[in-house]
Amino acid sequence: MPDLSPTSIDARWVAVCRRDPAADDRFVYSVATTGVFCRPSCAARLPRPENVAFHADAVAAIRAGFRPCKRCRPDLPARAEREATLITAACRRIEAAEVPPTLAELAAAAGLSAHHFHRLFRRVVGLTPKAYAEAERQRRVRAGLERKASVTETLYAAGFGSSGRFYSAAPALLGMTPGAYRAGGVGERIVYAVGACTLGSVLAAATERGLCAILLGDTVPALVDALQRRFPGARSEPAGPDFAVALATVVRLVDDPAGAPAPALPLDIRGTVFQRQVWQALQAIPPGTTVTYAELARRVGRPRAVRAVAGACAANRLAVAVPCHRVVATSGDLAGYRWGVARKQALIEREQTGVALSASAASSSGMPRPRRAS
């Protein structure tokens, strides 16, 4: 006959049998034959249900005369909470240090091996400790220059030991020289051109390092104004005839995003470490495919940072080249888009149509269809 004891038909027993971590903050269970109490997710061998009792929390179980399991440690905060506390302390250590601490120093402070700490830090934060330290250094540099501190003061405050190291790292951190950033981009030259496309007008702008903006809009004056607001201290001017190829390539990306691969465009991508991580993930999404903001957050290792991921998408200034239009809400709705939801829908539809036509053509010619990226 089936066991119909009070424990066996209790929903909490089902959670114990499933080792459900979602139940860990709801109750603990004790085992009369061992005198131990555990979390529902404990990996220990399941006891017989007639020997099990449930308690509201660890305090109640201890008062009932049971001792905590040494395996799941139900008397301590949950594992995820303990890990988050450890990594938060490491982040604060990085932020407070004049010189970024080494991986070995961070791991020792956390009481973990370097390998385990590195893996845990990346899982919780979404960045490696080194990348997080670089992001903190970038924040210090930007903050110092924005409050008009001297370049010398800023470089030492950010943990650089010499001006040579600072100036060699500055282009990657700021996208320009420290002096130019401190002056709001003064002295930097940006050339631009505007062309007509099927979605209205498109502006392409470039520094000496590559395209720094691809903007979509309805009127030329509005696009030029948006560019100048994006780079307020730079000297922006119409591009010469030699920029025509780059503009034509950008127009082609807008009009036929799923067509034959366009020539690679050098990009001058400017953003925080996290933003660049999101933008890199965006560039890996194949044409004709959409992902949700939640899925994109998982891909960059930050499953809980959905809003931050959405913010990084909104901060993108390189339309189509960094395809933030391929990200949709969990419901399937198109949600927001810097250049208008109608343009976003048009881009998605023409990509999907182009991919379908390419697959049909490949099938009719007897060639194998391209495999869809997972």
How would you describe what is shown here?
With 374 residues, the protein is an alpha/beta fold. It folds into five domains: 11-68, 3-Layer(aba) Sandwich (DNA Methylphosphotriester Repair Domain), CATH 3.40.10.10; 79-126; 135-182, no CATH class; 189-255, Methylated DNA-protein cysteine methyltransferase domain (Double Stranded RNA Binding Domain, 2-Layer Sandwich), CATH 3.30.160; 273-356, Orthogonal Bundle (Arc Repressor Mutant, subunit A), CATH 1.10.10. 45% of the residues lie in helices and 12% in strands. The protein has 15 helices and ten strands. It has helices at residues 11-18, 58-63, 79-96, 103-110, 114-125, 129-146, 151-157, 163-174, 178-182, 220-230, 244-255, 273-283, 293-299, 306-314, 341-364; strands spanning 28-31, 36-38, 52-55, 67-68, 189-197, 200-207, 210-217, 235-238, 291-292, 327-328. It has a four-stranded mixed sheet with strand order 3-1-2-4. It is elongated, with a radius of gyration of 28 Å.
Q: Main attributes?
A:
5 domains, 4-stranded mixed sheet, DNA Methylphosphotriester Repair Domain, 374 residues
How are the secondary structure elements laid out?
Layout: H1 11-18, E1 28-31, E2 36-38, E3 52-55, H2 58-63, E4 67-68, H3 79-96, H4 103-110, H5 114-125, H6 129-146, H7 151-157, H8 163-174, H9 178-182, E5 189-197, E6 200-207, E7 210-217, H10 220-230, E8 235-238, H11 244-255, H12 273-283, E9 291-292, H13 293-299, H14 306-314, E10 327-328, H15 341-364
Parallel strand pairs: 2-4, 5-8, 9-10
Antiparallel strand pairs: 1-2, 1-3, 5-6, 6-7
Helix pairs in contact: 4-5, 6-7, 13-14
